[in-house]
Design brief:
With 274 residues, this protein is mainly alpha-helical. It is built from 10 helices and no strands. Helix 2 runs antiparallel to helix 3, helix 2 crosses helix 5 and helix 7 crosses helix 10.
Length: 274
């Protein structure tokens, strides 16, 4: 319980510091295009830092599954309502290029910002753990902050799990566009939580290339190419298949379209305030 309390404190601290930094950046650079890229870096850092702590709780702290899933749901909602226009996912940036709401150049810059935020989180979090705020952190420090690959299946099966997870999230987003923004955030968070429950034991159920680069790639057990196959190719294909299926294939067969021009990506772009 003491370990959990410390982790909850850190989750709140990561979100609070990120939110203060986001709001400060928004005020200081409100008239600059640079602002949205700063928000992208900060928001991706928040996503990755929180996931690092949750991952540690689950893998080293061995918390009860229901507690872990509850925290996953709650933090997903928090991310959705605090990102302020950030996408937080390279697959999401590519989806915006497909929708023609972002240029290719802008999407590439955003993706670079996302990976920068992921790298910063991966670099900073060991220093936080090294403070030894809880026994959990001390135990992790004792083993050199090492982690083992969460992939517990063949690479094709693991990639298929990540593909299916990304497909499910993208499909949920597509079909929840008529819901009020606050309800969409909860709906997508619920789907994410269900996917973590279903696929977490196979790959960790990350379905976000930047997040995976921060939390999974440093782990021993697989090569960079193998991680890329599972955590980069899988999610990108999942989003692509969902887009093509519901924007091209089904409309052709039914004569109807699911796409609306003002469609937002609620989990990764909950508030367009910039």
């Amino acid at each position: 319980m003491a370990d959990l309390s410390v982790s909850l404190f850190l989750l709140a601290l990561f979100v609070l510091l990120s939110e203060v930094t986001r709001r400060t950046a928004t005020k200081l650079f409100a008239k600059s295009d640079f602002c949205i890229y700063l928000v992208e870096i900060i928001s991706t850092f928040q996503l990755c830092a929180c996931t690092h702590e949750l991952k540690l709780l689950g893998e080293v702290g061995r918390i009860e599954p229901q507690i872990g899933l509850t925290l996953t749901y709650l933090i997903s909602v928090v991310h959705a309502v605090t990102f302020h226009g950030a996408i937080g996912n390279p697959s999401g940036a590519l989806e915006h290029v497909y929708r023609k709401s972002l240029t290719g150049k802008s999407a590439l810059v955003r993706i670079a910002c996302q990976f920068l935020g992921a790298v910063v989180a991966r670099s900073v979090i060991p220093y936080v753990w090294a403070l030894g705020l809880s026994d959990l952190h001390l135990r992790h420090k004792l083993f050199g902050f090492k982690c083992i690959s969460p992939i517990n299946a063949t690479l094709p099966k693991a990639a298929a799990v990540e593909l299916a997870c990304a497909f499910a999230v993208q499909t949920t987003v597509t079909h929840m566009q008529s819901l009020d923004e606050k309800y969409r955030a909860h709906a997508v968070a619920a789907v994410i939580t269900a996917l973590v429950y279903a696929g977490g034991s196979v790959t960790g159920a990350v379905f976000n290339p930047a997040l995976a680069y921060s939390t999974q790639f440093p782990c021993s057990g697989h090569t960079f190419a193998e991680y890329s196959f599972v955590y980069w190719l899988g999610p990108v294909l999942g989003v692509t298949i969902s887009l093509l299926l519901f924007d091209k294939v089904i409309p052709i067969l039914s004569g109807k379209s699911f796409y609306q021009k003002d469609l937002e990506f609620p989990f990764f772009e909950a508030k367009k305030t910039l």
